[in-house]
């Protein structure tokens, strides 16, 4: 013989178990923000190369804006030069870097007087108005191709001249 209230306790237990299972299933959803937070979302803007004054070297500048998880710029390649290196400038001293961190929800600037690219052993001296093809290599995001316009040697991105 069954005890009074036993079916309602079993039903309540099943409802609680089902609610817990549904809540846990929702935590693992692919739509949760934490799942996408680790994935970098990169955008490259303001890329340019001042017209080089030498036949063998040039510099390049741009900004990486990241609206996702952290990444690392590991290298740069270009058909303009067999060697494209990453450099920082601190206290007037230029130093080659192996990589640059791209912070989550942040940016990485390559600007005159600071971080920059050095194109060494140029295949030709690019002229103002030319576009240089550059491929940025990131640890997580993979490769990003950039068309870098050659501006005047004295170009200032703040004034556009």
Task: Give the structure's gist in a few sentences.
This protein is an alpha+beta fold and 161 residues long.
Descriptive keywords:
single chain, 161 residues, alpha+beta, ten-stranded mixed beta sheet, 10 strands, 17% helix, 44% strand, globular
What does this structure look like?
The chain is of the alpha+beta class. Helices cover 17% and strands 44% of the residues. Strands 1, 2, 3, 4, 5, 6, 7, 8, 9 and 10 form a 10-stranded mixed sheet that branches. Strand 4 and strand 5 (93-97) form a beta hairpin. The longest helix is centred in the first third of the chain and has 22 residues, at 6-27. The termini are far apart.
Helix/strand layout:
Blueprint: H1 6-27, H2 33-37, E1 42-50, E2 57-66, E3 71-78, E4 83-90, E5 93-97, E6 100-102, E7 106-110, E8 116-120, E9 131-138, E10 142-151
Parallel strand pairs: 1-10
Antiparallel strand pairs: 1-2, 2-7, 2-8, 3-6, 3-9, 4-5, 4-8, 9-10
Could you say which structural class the secondary elements and strand pairing correspond to?
Answer: alpha+beta
Level of helix content?
Answer: 10-25%
Shape: globular
Measured distance between first and last alpha carbons: 93 Å
Q: How many strands, what sense, and barrel or not for the largest sheet?
A: 10 strands, mixed
The proportion of strand residues reads: 35-45%
Low-confidence segments, given as residue ranges, are: 8-36
Q: Would you tell me the overall average pLDDT?
A: 84
Count the helices. How many? 2
SSE series: HHEEEEEEEEEE
Gyration radius, to the nearest Å? Answer: 26 Å
Record field, number of beta strands: 10
